[in-house]
Each structure stands twice: as C-alpha cells, then as structure tokens.
Design goal:
Blueprint (H helix, E strand, L loop, with lengths): L7 E6 L4 H11 L7 E10 L4 E3 L2 E5 L2 H4 L4 H6 L4 E7 L15 E5 L2 E11 L2 H10 L10 H10 L5 H9 L4 E9 L2 E6 L8 E5 L17 E5 L3 H6 L2 E5 L4 E6 H6 L6 E4 L8 E2 H7 L5 E2 L2 E2 H15 L13 E4 L5 H13 L5 E2 L3 E3 L12 H11 E3 L1 H4 L3 E6 L6 H12 L4 E6 L28 H8 L3 E4 L2 H11 L7 E2 L1 H4 L8 H9 L2
Parallel strand pairs: 15-25, 18-19, 18-22, 22-23, 23-24
Antiparallel strand pairs: 1-5, 1-11, 2-3, 2-4, 2-5, 6-7, 7-8, 8-9, 9-13, 10-11, 10-12, 13-14, 16-17, 20-21
Helix pairs in contact: 5-6, 10-11, 10-16, 12-14
The structure holds adenosine monophosphate.
Length: about 500
C-alpha cells in the first residue's frame, strides 16, 4: 500500500507556539499512526534574510520523536507549522525518506506537505514523471503532489496547488505549509476527515509578550480530539473538494468565512469513509460533522436489533457482554443497553483488559509475531468469565487473528460459551483510499462460504455481523445533518473511485 494509509495530520497558523501546539495535536492523533512522526514550521531567518522551514521527523511515537525541549525553544520556531503521524505497514515504510512531512524548496520558496490517504492514479502519474526524467526521493504517493505543484506554470503558489490537485485522484486529506499560508485540502470524495478549528488568542500563550498579533490562531486536524488537546474550538469541517487557504492577514482578523476557499472538481460524488466511524477515529472526536461516540453507540443499538444476546437455558448464569477494548467499547455500551431494553438477560462487563504498550496487531510482520502481539495486547479477567455465557463485541474481523486467539483465551478462562458479535459487516475487499487492510485472499470472510463456517473456524458458539444496510442506517440515524454519501467498499466491493486491476496488483507488490 502507499505509505500514507491511516495517518494523522495537523496544521496551525497564527501563534508563536506553533510547534508546541502541533506536538500536542499530533499526540492526540497518535492512534492514527504510530510508526513515525514529524513537524515542520515556517519562520524568517534574519541572517539569511529569507523565510526558512526548520523540520524534525523520525521513526517512533510523538513523545519519543520530540523528547527534547530545545526542539521547541531553539529549532522549530515560527508562527505556523504542520505535522504528521504515519501508520503504514508497507515495506516502503522502512525507508526514512518516506517519513512526513515532506519539505521542498523551489523558485517560489519553501513548501511542506502532510498527507493522509492514497492516490488512485499514482501509478499513472509516476510513470509519466519517470518518462520526463523526474527523480523520486521517496516511494510515496505524496511526493507526486509536490512534483505537480513544482511543475505548474501558474504564478501564485496557491494557484499551483490548485493546479496540482485537479490532476490527482483518490483519497487525500492534506495540510500544506507555504512561506505565507496554511492550506487545508480534502479530496472531492471526502474520504478522510479534516476539520478547521480556532484557538483564541488568550490561549496562544506568549503571543502578547512577543508582540505577536492578537488575533486567533487557526488549526486543522484529522480529528477534533486534537483541538481539545490545545484548547481550540471546532469551527467546521473542511468540505469535500475544498482547498481552504489560511493567510496571516485574514487569520488575524478572526473571521473564518473570510478565508479564500476553492473547489476541486469531483467526478465521483462524495464518499466519506464509514470505517472511520466503525473503528478508526476516537470516540471523543467529531468527524464528518458528528461525534464518533454518538454514531458508534447507534451502531451498537442496530446490532442489538439484528443479532441480540442469545437466549440461555434456565439455570445458566446471566450472559455478560464484553467489548474488545478499546475500539469496541462505545458500540458495546450501545449494544448491551439495547439488548437489556429488548428484554434479553445480560449485563455489560469488562472481561478483557488491554495492555496499551503494544502497538496495533497489524504492525507485527509475519503471522507468528502477530499472534504474539494479540496475546501481549489482551488478557482475560478470569473471575468474571468462569461458567458464564460470554458475548464478545468487536468492531471488525479482518484476518481473524485477534478473534481466534481471543476465543481460545476466553475458553481457557472457563467461559461457558463464547459468542462473537461484530459491529460492522464482513470485510471482503481491500481499501485503496487509505485504510490498511490486507489483500483480498487474506481477509477471513473470503476464505469461507458462510458466516457459520467462519464461526466454526474461529471456534465460537455463534457469530453474527451487522448488515451493510444496518450499518448505513445507524450512521444516518446518528448523523442526520450530514446528508453526503459514504464509502463502504471494504464491506461491499463497490469502489466509488475506480481502481485499475493492475493497480491492485501493484499496491500489494509494494508491501
Ligand atoms: P484481525 O485480527 O486481522 O481480524 O483484525 C481485527 C482487529 O484489528 C479488530 O479487533 C480491529 O479492532 C482491528 N482493526 C480493524 N481494522 C484495522 C485496520 N485497518 N488497521 C488496524 N487495525 C484494525
């Protein structure tokens, strides 16, 4: 896959604490990518008499990459900055050159970019650039955007960016930093989330002491939990296809509606990633205009309608409903409450404990290590489970590794029966728009003809998934104000932006 699957991006303009706020923002977005992290800022170098962009990036978690105070007090100076957390599991990810943000310098000055998503015409673009003799420094799609910007014949940097973005297709939520602007972009399909926030000048620390303009600072982030971290307020989403240009002068005036905004023409409608609601985003974030917590609870309630807690024989203990933490916690509350309301005997328990110091299971290369990571990540609370029917709720089954090990662990702990309930439909198709899934053959759902067979393979007493219709209904019920479309290709194979057959092959050859 491209190196920008599942990333967290952040940008800010209008505060001398730009780097520090970016650091906090990235920390809040750590769940979107744990492999590498980076920050670039924009400042004026008096000695060289020109704007410069200091940068610091490396492999590791935000707190480890930025573990020295002097990075903030001496290096990453300036009133604006962007940052990036990357998740990628691909082979390409081992290369240091792929760590973002990317930074280049051309006749128009400095330019930095952070990208979350995956371009679907990357192959075509790479081929045409190679034919012209362009040298690539990375294997990442995002570099293509920089080449397109640099090659644009337009005069203004902002127009070059617009020019470049009309030539790329697929999924791209971007923040770009120029010497004068912070630019936030969402692809016309709106695959990945991106929101605009406002940080009141009082909270921007030493602004006044430094004689800095008293206007607010403006920030953009993949998820609003990053705004909460720095005390900024959510203003609105960057709209699908919008190029939002935040310049210093307008920023200081404090009126969001005064920013220049352009529209990239889209050919495929809007298709926001429904998997962000199912799994990826944090419940305390607002994405696509609605709180993830609210949507996830509704998803759990819908699952309770479609696949409630199984009835148990008289004399058996009351079933417990336990989430696979943390991603299934919120939906499980919705599920267990709804089951009780429907009259099913059950109650919510925390029967699995998660060790937070293990990366996501997907990070382990090769199956054996992945299995070890599941064991290293979860343990059972035996006293709760012994002799009880246990209903385990998880957000998804991808390869089936997590589920199959959890079943063994729950049985070893004495569960009377183990029932799995999944708050999304079976994952049947890979994602080409920025979510990290394995190839079609590796997906558990493609290895069996029926859900019953999958259940047998996992060793559960029963297995049930939410239907596609149920998922979409729950999302629409919880998020009424957003009437735009969603992408559910991972559950249906209906790709909203066409994927070429050979692109599919190439995507996996990169791994
Ligand atoms: P698996 O063990 O392959 O079936 O993976 C399923 C587990 O991984 C679920 O418990 C999810 O919470 C989590 N998961 C689902 N999708 C992803 C993804 N795209 N990236 C990382 N983890 C995921």
């Amino acid at each position: 896959m491209g190196a920008n699957d599942e990333c967290g991006i952040f940008g800010i303009l209008g505060t001398p604490e730009a780097a520090r706020h970016t650091y906090y923002g990235l920390h809040a977005l750590q769940h979107r990518g744990q492999e590498s992290s980076g920050i670039v800022t924009s400042t004026y170098d008096e000695a060289r008499e020109r704007p410069v962009m200091p940068i610091h990036k490396d492999f590791g978690l935000v707190l480890d990459v930025f573990d020295q105070e002097r990075l903030f007090s001496q290096k990453l100076l300036g009133d604006s900055g962007i940052g990036h957390n990357r998740y990628s599991t691909s082979g390409a990810s081992e290369s240091r050159t792929n760590v973002q943000p990317f930074l280049v310098h051309d006749r128009k000055g400095n330019l930095a970019l952070s990208h979350n998503g995956n371009l679907s015409n990357a192959r075509e673009l790479r081929r045409s650039f190679s034919e012209q003799g362009t040298l690539f420094q990375t294997t990442s799609d995002s570099e293509l955007i920089l080449h397109l910007i640099a090659q644009s014949r337009r005069e203004r940097r902002v127009d070059q960016i617009i020019d470049a973005l009309t030539q790329v297709e697929g999924a791209f939520s971007l923040v770009l930093l120029t010497d004068d602007h912070l630019v936030a972009v969402r692809d016309p399909n709106g695959f990945r989330p991106l929101a605009l926030g406002r940080l009141a000048s009082e909270s921007s620390g030493s602004a006044k002491q430094n004689g800095h303009a008293e206007g607010p600072a403006w920030c953009v982030a993949s998820e609003t939990c990053a705004f909460d971290m720095i005390g900024a307020e959510y203003v609105r989403d960057v709209e699908p296809g919008e190029i939002l240009v935040i310049d210093r002068e307008t920023a200081a005036r404090g009126d969001a509606s005064a920013f220049e905004s352009y529209q990239v023409p889209g050919r495929h409608g809007v298709s926001q990633c429904v998997f962000e609601y199912v799994y990826f985003s944090r419940p305390d974030s607002k994405i696509f205009g609605e709180m993830v917590d609210k949507v996830r609870r509704q998803i759990g309630r819908q699952l309770a309608l479609e696949a409630p807690v199984p009835e148990v024989e008289d004399g058996q203990k009351e079933p417990i409903v336990i989430p696979v933490p943390d991603s299934a916690n919120t939906a499980t509350l919705g599920y267990a409450n709804a089951c009780q309301k429907q009259g099913q005997r059950c109650h919510f328990e925390i029967g699995l404990i998660r060790n937070h110091y293990v990366g996501r299971t997907f990070i382990a290369p090769g199956q054996d290590q992945r299995e070890m990571k599941v064991r290293g990540k979860f343990n059972t609370v035996e006293g709760l489970l012994r002799d009880r029917p246990v209903v385990v709720v998880d957000d998804s089954i991808v390869r089936g590794t997590t589920a199959s090990y959890l079943v063994d662990m729950l049985r070893d702990s004495g569960a009377a029966s183990v029932h799995f309930r999944i708050t999304s439909p079976p994952v049947v198709s890979p994602c080409f728009y920025g979510m990290d899934f394995p190839s079609e053959e590796e997906l558990l759902a493609n290895q069996f003809d029926s859900i019953a067979e999958m259940g047998d393979h996992l060793g559960v007493d029963s297995l049930a998934y939410l239907s596609v219709e149920g998922l979409m209904k729950a999302v629409r019920t919880a998020n009424k104000q957003n009437d735009l479309g969603y992408c559910n290709a991972c559950f249906t194979g209906d790709y909203p932006v066409p994927v070429e057959a050979d692109q599919v092959k190439e995507e996996f050859e990169w791994q």
